[in-house]
Design brief:
about 160 residues, alpha/beta, Rossmann fold, five-stranded parallel beta sheet, 5 strands, globular
């Protein structure tokens, strides 16, 4: 049986930190499902379809190992439906760990068969977040080297 993990998130926009976590998760698991959470309360920069396209562009070299999907509702229920063994979470700081810990414990209570695996952000991505990227970009700052080039181009199109 293949070892399957889910890497959930909004990916709005996709950052090099996300790409790094996906790449590293592929070294551990046979299949990595990159799952875009559908959250009607958020007002994303990119549509779900656009985020799927960006993820497919960037992960194309690993198309046999990376699956791009969307989900709603409880992550552990989605993990059960997809027969995933693990949930991948990227951690940049102790603040991220403190935020993630209660969710990990609740997920474990709801579905003890699914483990959460923390992957520590690489040094060069340890301060990068999607919200910070959007803020810097919208204020005219450079995000070069922090997101894939194709994402920068798509963000520029949003300003037109």
């Amino acid at each position: 049986m293949a070892r399957r993990a889910i890497y959930p998130g909004s990916f709005d926009p996709l950052t090099n930190g996300h790409v790094d976590i996906i790449e590293r998760a592929c070294h551990i698991f046979d299949e990595v499902i990159v799952a875009i959470l559908i959250n009607p309360d958020k007002h994303p920069m990119f549509t779900v379809a656009e985020r799927i396209e960006m993820l497919k562009e960037v992960t194309g070299a690993r198309a046999s190992q990376v699956v791009i999907e969307t989900f709603e509702g409880l992550l552990v229920e989605y993990a059960r439906q997809r027969q995933a063994h693990a949930i991948i979470r990227g951690v940049r700081s102790i603040k991220d760990y403190e935020y993630e810990l209660p969710m990990v414990l609740m997920n474990r209570r709801l579905n003890p068969q699914v483990e959460t695996v923390f992957l520590i952000a690489s040094e060069e991505n340890s301060y990068v977040s999607s919200s910070l990227i959007k803020e810097v970009f919208l204020l005219g700052g450079s995000i070069e080297g922090l997101v894939p080039h194709s994402v920068i181009e798509r963000m520029k199109e949003k300003l037109i």
